[in-house]
Design a protein that fits this description.
Blueprint: E1 8-13, E2 18-25, E3 31-41, E4 46-51, E5 64-72, E6 77-84
Antiparallel strand pairs: 1-4, 2-3, 2-5, 5-6
Length: 86
């Protein structure tokens, strides 16, 4: 959950050297935030990315359910859910 000063930590690990993309979508599956785009990561490591609950324009998003899509190049795509309560 994201509060006024809160952050969401999206944690993942990599099996091989890869490139990572993480996007945040609203309940209607509209893109809200491009959190990470094509960022290189070493294999066999644990990583996390922080989302501050803001959209790409820097505006705090409304309360509700959001989804993130974690893409690891050469590996499967993973979806997750985030609940925002401001």
């Amino acid at each position: 959950m994201v509060g006024d000063e809160g952050y969401v930590r999206i944690q993942y690990n990599t099996k091989n050297d890869t490139r990572v993309t993480i996007k945040i979508f609203d309940f209607g599956m509209h893109l809200v935030r491009n959190l990470v785009q094509d960022k290189p990561r070493s294999g066999g490591e644990d990583y996390y990315e922080l989302w501050d609950g803001r959209n790409d324009n820097g505006v705090i998003v409304a309360n509700g359910v959001y989804f993130y899509r974690l893409e690891l190049e050469g590996e499967k795509t993973v979806w997750g859910k985030i609940v925002v309560l401001n």
